[in-house]
Design brief:
Blueprint lengths: L2 E9 L2 E14 L8 E4 L4 H4 L1 H11 L8 E8 L11 H11 L11 E3 L2 E2 L5 E2 L4 H11 L3 E5 H7 L6 E5 L2 H8 L32 H13 L3 E4 L6 H6 L10 H13 L15 E2 L7 H5 L9 H4 L4 E4 L7 H6 L1 H6 L1 E6 L2 E6 L3 E6 L18 H8 L4 H5 L3 E4 L5 H6 L6 H19 L10 H7 L4 H14 L3 H17 L7 H9 L7
Parallel strand pairs: 3-4, 5-8, 8-9, 10-15, 10-16, 11-12, 12-15
Antiparallel strand pairs: 1-2, 2-4, 6-7, 13-14
Length: 510
């Protein structure tokens, strides 16, 4: 009689249910060893599971049917199975076919885990993705390695058990009361995001700090232009310290991406800190937007609900920069391959930084720019107009003078700025809906929530004419003005808010 165990495999960040079917189809005729046949489009890591399972069962004291021909099928057969985490369901299905484990216990149980040769279970990537799939598919129990249990416990209505060995899994399935479900560990509010760096470390740069506060409050993208050593990177790295703490839903969404990509750095449980990703300018197209032979999330998806910082932005490959246009507009990135199309979340704040010219000294009185005007113009044009249109705030970050560095008091602390950001976000949620922010407003929402009086309309008519702004830039100015009004606690957008929003547009690129 065929024994079935339920498992899963990852396609992108989505977990796909897999059924592991095992049957004994005859006796072994070759005395050199058992005939273990594995079918169902397994990759090399899955094919090697045969040896790991056989040795792990032997070293765990479990009866392996050496004298029987074992047929193991991974269904459905048209999906390629990847990774070693199918070891545990294979071993359990063999145990069930050998009447070591009750088959009825496997009907609503999902199993995943890599086996060591000694029978110890090793963690795998994508536990939260599998747990959410188990919840959607109606599974009642999920058995995973102990290190994955805290992350998988997000599944509501599914009992998650973390076990350390193959023997533990067998005993659990046979009704042992020595195991208890893993509780969901939620970080206390206010302690979810603790950063060692703070805006109080920053001296001067009040205009840049104001722009970063607006970016954090409304979720706006920002571009900083300034010479080397002016503090662009220092400012950008402190942006997560003023962003609101992740909600439970946002934490689960961030963990899904990081866990599937194997980017959790060995940490267990959910990710509670806002991501901050800073890829090198030599990063490839696939590394930034996602892809590869087996598509994985890229940096723009790993920055989901956080910050993507692109230092030396013009040095990135042009195709990489242009590929950011879709995720910046839609909050997701679509990767198309012959085998299919995958969509990854990519709702992040883009912070770009660049020098004013290739040498970085343009405009500095104490330094002389060595580039020609045409060279400097070509350098700035590496970032296309359509991409610049999608960046709401454009600011200059000047180099501080010695007296400013030595005499200025430290800047405002991140906690105080975060309080204003949280208050502004609360106003946006009350106006737009829970967890909605101004930067994600559509054209209809802009017209409905940002009515302009006669004075404001006349002002924007003059601005549009003089600066020759596109319709997209016009809408983004309104969004930034709405965020500025939210920071000030104003119910409506006035001319003073629009004036400040217009100042954050780089007129040479607008």
């Amino acid at each position: 009689m065929i024994a079935q165990a339920h498992s899963a495999t990852l396609v992108g960040i989505e977990a796909i249910p897999i059924v592991v079917e095992t049957d004994f189809v005859g006796a072994v005729t070759d005395s050199s060893g058992p005939n273990f046949i594995l079918v169902g489009l397994p990759d090399n890591a899955v094919k090697e599971s045969r040896e790991r399972v056989r040795t792990a069962m032997k070293n765990s004291g479990l009866d392996f049917p050496y004298l029987k021909k074992i047929m193991c099928n991974l269904a459905p057969g048209d999906i390629r199975k990847e990774g070693p985490w199918l070891d545990l369901p294979m071993a359990i299905s063999i145990c069930a076919a050998n009447n070591v484990v009750s088959r009825s216990e496997l009907a609503k149980t999902l199993l995943l885990g890599e086996l060591g040769l000694d029978g110890v279970l090793r963690p795998f990537d994508g536990a939260v993705n599998v747990a959410l799939m188990a919840m959607e598919q109606g599974f009642k129990r999920l058995i995973v390695p102990a290190e994955n249990a805290a992350e998988a416990a997000v599944a509501t209505g599914v009992e998650v058990y973390g076990v350390r060995t193959l023997v533990d899994a067998v005993e659990l399935l046979n009704g042992s009361n020595l195991f208890s479900p893993q509780p969901l560990e939620v970080a206390p509010v206010g302690k979810r995001s603790e950063y060692e760096i703070d805006f109080s470390d920053v001296k001067g740069q009040r205009n840049a700090m104001r722009a970063l506060e607006i970016a954090a409050a409304g979720g706006h993208n920002l571009l900083m232009v300034g010479p080397p050593g002016s503090g662009k990177t220092m400012l950008a790295r402190r942006l997560p310290s003023i962003l609101p703490p992740l909600t439970l839903g946002e934490s689960i969404a961030v963990t899904r991406v990081h866990s599937a990509a194997g980017e959790k750095g060995g940490k267990s449980g959910l990710v509670w800190d806002r991501p901050f990703r800073s890829p090198h300018h030599s990063a490839s197209h696939a590394a930034i937007v996602g892809g590869g032979r087996n598509p994985k999330p890229g940096e723009v998806s790993l920055a989901h609900f956080g910050v993507l910082f692109m230092d030396e932005m013009p040095e990135f490959d042009r195709s990489v920069l242009e590929a950011l246009r879709q995720p910046l507009e839609d909050g997701e990135v679509t990767v198309s391959r012959v085998a299919g199309t995958l969509t990854f979340p990519a709702s992040c704040i883009l912070i770009g930084a660049m020098n004013p010219c290739p040498c970085g000294f343009k405009g500095l009185p104490e330094e002389k720019c060595v580039g020609s005007p045409s060279t400097c113009a070509r350098y700035g044009s590496r970032i296309s107009g359509p991409l610049l249109d999608r960046i709401d705030l454009h600011i200059e970050v000047p180099r501080l003078k010695p007296d400013e560095l030595l005499g200025m008091q430290p800047g405002e602390c991140s906690a105080a700025i975060r309080e204003r950001v949280l208050a502004a976000r609360d106003r946006q949620s009350a106006r737009l809906g829970l967890a909605r922010i101004n930067a994600k407003m559509g054209p209809r929402e802009i017209r409905e929530t940002i009515p302009l009086d006669k004075e404001s309309e006349d002002f924007m008519r003059i601005v549009m004419t003089r600066l020759n702004l596109s319709a997209r830039v016009f809408d983004r100015i309104l969004k930034v003005a709405r965020t500025i009004a939210d920071l000030q606690g104003a119910d409506s957008v006035a001319k003073v808010h629009l004036s400040e929003a217009v100042q954050y547009r780089d007129r040479t690129n607008a």
